[in-house]
Write the structure tokens for this entry.
Amino acid sequence: MTTSKTAESPFASNSTASNMCGFTLMNNQVGEIIAEVMRTKDDVTVTPLPSMIRVDAHRRMDVVYAEIDEAAGEEDGWFDQAEFEESMSTHYGRMIHLDDRTIMFANPEDAADYLDFDLKPVR
């Protein structure tokens, strides 16, 4: 009698924290400029795909608007939250928009100071 074993699914669920955050960009001129800037950051991986650009980071990443302005050859203030939202398809992790940057956090606890979120338990 032969027994067969089912192969383990590559899509099995895993509830372990990944400590990763990221976003996808449209694969267009603005998306390429953002990706170009993000490639220079520590702990950030940029993966170009046929129809999008994936940007992933360990724990935290900052998209600094002035850096995007400079890379695009545009005046200060051209790139902002609205321009970023227009180029971004989706994201994972906690996203915080500030006047001069968007910050992505892998863990919500790391964003607590920006969210005015008290991590102390209520009794």
In short: The chain has one domain: 20-114. The domain at 20-114 is CATH 3.90.56.10 (Phenol Hydroxylase P2 Protein). The chain has a mean pLDDT of 89. The radius of gyration is 18 Å.
